[in-house]
């Protein structure tokens, strides 16, 4: 396992180096005038000349790249043009809100998706299977930003059940403030014993989390179904049946466990989807996370911020893939011994 | 993001006979929708009840009318018929998605076929590049590229194609690697057919079915992605008729004039659903065996 881990870590390091090169190229080579890009639409010629020198854009590209990598490793990700604050601080400051949303969505998607997939496989070719197939295809076909609007109409405008936007009622910030520990409002409010805030935060997170969960749920359900069918067709399942083992034991203990590795891969994929999917959900629900920041940066050509987020997202993606590989190796010894 | 191919099991005949559904009614419905969308895309404004409003001409004295007899799906903030705008917008959605997937296939499939057939160093180089491109979440990469190129429909299409090709490289490499050991390829090699002709004349034509399945699903996914880019302002620009852009323009009035963003979003949903249903049906037909 240690050798497997070392090999995978080395591979990830190489990929990260490549990713930094792509991010660098995107920001410095594709735009015809990176300095003008860097300053923004209101750049004047003398500003451009100054910034060109300041950023070292007048030096050879390889030198620029090495400087960029050194700065990134040293924690200097540049300064956001929009907020005038360090990009890394902006990203890390908004990360908890986004992570809380993604985790909430996955806490819905993983159990529901796996349950639907198992149900579908057990009733293959019958009514539950057909229904789950439709539900999962609908799940992967819904535009998140549109589903978000529909949920707002239904639960806010029609039913008056849930709040329209935001992460917490602004008034609560004064009446019963949450003391920050982890940055996750749900966790922090519980730690502080602040039940009023907890309920309010929960009510705010329901719609965005459900919206973000739609696609992963559909994908996980489909993968679980086909992995379960494959597992159930194996000889050892027939043997188990011949020995008269109970159906429930066969389904959950024997088949599901062996169906998990491909499901884990899909969970990794959907996590990566959630990383960008959350941007659109955050915009509609005015969620104060990375998404709102990113979209603002993209539209205002806030180049340091765009570079930072692209790199950050790519690093997150590489980490997710690494975790998925390690999880698979843990579930399936054949992988780590190969 | 690209949906991975989920392969289904061979259905034993006994089970198939008492299957709940006939052959594939959903796939058939999806095909009908796709044919309709392609027709609308070809006809364009001609098919719209109000062609001028469809292409963008304002009609302010009829602004924000709810759905009714004159305007089946209502009118938007500038008084334009929402149905006409949706019909005109079909051309964008279908055009962009076909172009993106076509481009991704044109880049990805030959690279994958070469890698899988030739193996060795060229395989290593192509696949490392592919892994690297796949290390970015596709949509995030597309967003960064559009930001570098500047917003706009063409740029969004280019960006999406750039972030989509690696999936096809991976797919066609896998089939090419298995095809190269087959007798007909060995025979071609034995009688001295050049590698290039083997790749383009034998390998690629014989690896098309998984590619067609993936492409069908991807067209839906790209419609969704292009709509998402337009929704955040990185795709088509006003006054163009574009589904994602229409949802974005109507978002501010969602609580009062709900029809303005709801119907264009519904159009995206139906189009994506249709391609997914057909892709799903094709997958069941083309990949009856276990494949990983």
Summarize the structure.
Chain A is mainly alpha-helical. Chain A has helices spanning 2-28, 34-39, 45-54, 61-73, 87-122, 127-141, 144-158, 172-175, 185-191, 195-232, 235-242, 247-285, 290-299, 303-331, 333-337.
Textual characterization of the structure:
The complex is a heterodimer of chains A (338) and B (292). Chain A has 15 helices and no strands. With 338 residues, chain A is mainly α. In chain A, helix 12 (247-285) runs antiparallel to helix 14. The radius of gyration of chain A is 24 Å and the shape is globular. By secondary structure, chain B is mainly alpha-helical. Chain B is 68% helix and 0% strand. Chain B is built from twelve helices and no strands. In chain B, helix 10 runs antiparallel to helix 12. The longest helix of chain B has 37 residues, at 82-118. The chains are: A mainly alpha (338), B mainly alpha (292).
In the CATH classification, which architecture of chain B applies? Orthogonal Bundle
The CATH superfamily of chain B turns out to be MetI-like
Span of the ends, CA to CA of chain B? 19 Å
SSE run of chain B: HHHHHHHHHHHH
> Radius of gyration of chain A, Cα only, in angstroms?
24 Å
Number of strands of chain B: 0
The DSSP helix count of chain A reads 15
Mean pLDDT across all amino acids of chain B: 87
Q: DSSP helix count of chain B?
A: 12
Largest interface: A-B, 68 and 58 residues
Could you give the topology of this structure?
The complex is a heterodimer of chains A (338) and B (292).
Chain A: H1 2-28, H2 34-39, H3 45-54, H4 61-73, H5 87-122, H6 127-141, H7 144-158, H8 172-175, H9 185-191, H10 195-232, H11 235-242, H12 247-285, H13 290-299, H14 303-331, H15 333-337
Chain B: H1 13-17, H2 25-43, H3 51-55, H4 82-118, H5 120-134, H6 138-149, H7 153-179, H8 183-190, H9 195-206, H10 208-231, H11 243-250, H12 259-286
């Amino acid at each position: 396992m240690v050798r497997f881990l070392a090999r995978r870590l080395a591979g990830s390091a190489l990929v990260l180096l490549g990713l930094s090169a792509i991010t660098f190229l995107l920001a410095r080579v594709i735009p015809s005038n990176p300095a003008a890009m860097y300053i923004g639409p209101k750049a004047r010629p003398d500003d451009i000349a100054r910034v060109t020198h300041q950023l070292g854009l007048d030096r050879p590209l390889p030198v620029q790249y090495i400087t960029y990598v050194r700065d990134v490793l040293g924690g200097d990700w540049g300064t956001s043009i929009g907020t005038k604050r360090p990009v890394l601080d902006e990203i890390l400051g908004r990360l908890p809100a986004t992570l809380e949303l993604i985790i909430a969505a996955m806490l819905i998607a993983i159990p529901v998706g796996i349950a639907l997939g198992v149900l579908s496989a057990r009733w293959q070719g019958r009514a539950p299977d057909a229904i789950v197939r439709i539900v999962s295809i609908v799940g992967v076909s819904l535009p998140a930003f549109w589903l978000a609007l529909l949920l707002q109409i239904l639960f806010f405008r029609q039913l008056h059940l849930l709040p329209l936007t935001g992460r917490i009622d602004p008034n609560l910030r004064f009446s019963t403030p949450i003391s920050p520990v982890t940055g996750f409002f749900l966790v922090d409010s519980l730690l502080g014993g602040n039940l009023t805030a907890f309920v309010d935060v929960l009510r705010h997170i329901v719609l965005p989390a459900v919206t973000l969960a739609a696609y992963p749920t559909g994908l996980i359900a489909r993968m679980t179904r086909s992995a379960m069918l494959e597992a159930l067709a194996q000889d050892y399942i027939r043997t188990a049946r011949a020995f008269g083992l109970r159906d429930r034991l066969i389904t959950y203990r024997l088949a599901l466990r062996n169906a998990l590795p491909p499901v884990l891969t899909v969970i990794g994929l959907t996590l990566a989807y959630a990383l960008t999917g959350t941007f659109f959900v955050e915009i509609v629900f005015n969620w104060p996370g990375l998404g709102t920041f990113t979209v603002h940066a993209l539209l205002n050509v806030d180049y340091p911020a765009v570079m930072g987020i692209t790199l950050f997202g790519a690093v997150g993606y590489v980490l997710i893939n690494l975790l998925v590989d390690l999880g698979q190796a843990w579930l399936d010894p054949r992988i780590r011994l190969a | 993001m690209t949906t991975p191919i989920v392969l289904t099991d061979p259905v034993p005949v006994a089970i198939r006979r008492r299957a709940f559904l006939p052959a594939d009614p959903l796939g058939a419905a999806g095909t009908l929708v796709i044919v309709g969308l392609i027709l609308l895309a070809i006809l364009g404004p001609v098919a719209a009840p109000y062609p001028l409003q469809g292409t963008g001409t304002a009609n302010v004295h009829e602004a924000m009318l709810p759905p009714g007899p004159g305007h089946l799906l209502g009118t938007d903030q500038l008084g334009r018929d929402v149905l006409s705008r949706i019909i005109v917008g079909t051309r964008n959605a279908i055009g962009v998605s076909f172009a993106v997937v076509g481009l991704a296939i044109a880049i990805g499939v030959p690279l994958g076929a070469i890698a899988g057939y030739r193996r060795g160093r060229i395989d290593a180089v192509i696949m490392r590049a592919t892994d690297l491109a796949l290390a970015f979440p596709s949509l995030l990469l597309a967003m960064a590229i559009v930001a570098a190129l500047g917003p706009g429909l063409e740029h969004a299409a280019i960006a999406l194609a750039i972030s989509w090709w690696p999936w096809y490289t991976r797919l066609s490499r896998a089939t090419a690697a298995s095809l190269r050991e087959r007798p007909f390829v060995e025979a071609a090699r034995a009688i001295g057919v050049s590698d290039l002709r083997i790749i383009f004349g034998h390998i690629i034509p014989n690896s098309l079915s998984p590619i067609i399945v993936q492409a069908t699903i991807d067209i839906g996914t790209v419609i969704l992605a292009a709509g998402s880019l337009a929704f955040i302002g990185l795709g088509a620009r006003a006054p163009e008729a574009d589904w994602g852009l229409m949802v974005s323009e109507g978002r501010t009035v969602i609580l009062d004039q709900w029809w303005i963003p709801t119907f264009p979003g519904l159009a995206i949903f139906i189009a994506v659903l249709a391609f997914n249903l057909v892709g799903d049906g094709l997958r069941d037909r083309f990949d009856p065996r276990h494949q990983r």
